[in-house]
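stage 2 :: seqdesign
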């Protein structure tokens, strides 16, 4: 199962009981006895579900839930509030604070697992929706909007740290001819394979996205220009050397790549970097294709 559950209760006895019950069912259980530790743990382990007692000294469950829902990291984690009170006022307040559900003490095991399973199903559904909003449906890469958003964030981070950043724009050569000759389904197969080649070549730590159509974007941080160019050359060569099988035919595909690079002492915005990468890509296309070109801040 390996689902992570964070249990928060100031009663060590009741905490121990819940830990034993959940552990015996195969859940990975984390626990703490106060709201401050709960916030810290939730941000570090990102549990699948949080069981949160309402009545606690210092930071009570209501305040913890409110802070969890304000944080980008934890707002989508289902919170099941636990209360020993039988009135509806606390339950109403908990649900208004976007708690997913509630449990009344003493806790019934059947009800506990029913509510946890319901929360896990909800989170799984939400995670799928979130992934669909983030990823390109065909290639599985980041979509255009998220690629640009992540590039902007990396750009700001690198500026704060006074570090360099690079952006590469990649385009499949003669892609329209591939679609016209072999059909759009074959074109989609090639897009997916090239996406896989790009991600496997640059490594999991790099931000890779589908910029649009047959174009891709890659963000490079904390790397010198020579190393970025070497990686891009490796991508170009790996695509060129790959045998693309379409039906009973084997075809060759090439890509062109444009790179822009912002050194430590350069004054360039993130959108200027994209423009420069596009200029370099255009030059690669118009000078024979299947090559890597670089455009600097002040010219070639």
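stage 2 :: out
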């Amino acid at each position: 199962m390996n689902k992570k559950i964070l249990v928060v209760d100031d009663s060590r006895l009741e905490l121990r009981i819940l830990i034993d019950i959940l552990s015996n069912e195969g859940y990975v259980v984390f626990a703490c006895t106060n709201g401050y530790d709960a916030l810290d743990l939730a941000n570090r382990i990102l549990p699948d579900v949080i069981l949160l007692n309402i009545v606690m000294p210092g930071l009570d469950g209501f305040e913890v839930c409110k802070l969890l829902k304000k944080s980008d990291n934890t707002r989508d984690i289902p919170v099941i509030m636990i209360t020993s009170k039988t009135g509806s006022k606390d339950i109403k307040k908990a649900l208004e604070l976007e708690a997913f559900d509630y449990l009344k003490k003493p806790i019934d095991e059947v009800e506990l697992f029913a509510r946890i399973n319901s929360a896990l199903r909800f989170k799984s559904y939400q995670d799928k929706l979130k992934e669909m909003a983030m990823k390109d449906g065909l290639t599985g890469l980041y979509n255009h909007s998220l690629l640009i958003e992540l590039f902007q964030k990396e750009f700001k981070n690198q500026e704060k740290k006074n570090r360099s950043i690079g952006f590469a724009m990649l385009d499949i050569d003669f892609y329209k001819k591939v679609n016209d000759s072999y059909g759009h389904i074959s074109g989609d197969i090639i897009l997916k394979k090239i996406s896989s080649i790009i991600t496997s070549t640059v490594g999991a730590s790099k931000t890779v996205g589908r910029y649009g159509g047959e174009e891709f974007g890659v963000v490079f941080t904390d790397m010198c220009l020579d190393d970025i160019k070497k990686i891009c050359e490796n991508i170009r060569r790996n695509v060129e050397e790959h045998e693309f099988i379409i039906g009973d035919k084997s075809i060759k595909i090439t890509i062109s790549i444009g790179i822009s690079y912002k050194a430590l002492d350069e004054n360039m915005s993130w959108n200027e970097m994209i423009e420069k990468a596009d200029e370099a890509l255009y030059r690669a296309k118009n000078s024979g294709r299947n090559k890597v070109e670089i455009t600097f801040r002040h010219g070639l």
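stage 3 :: structure notes
- The mean pLDDT is 92.
- Residues 19 and 265 are 54 Å apart (CA to CA).
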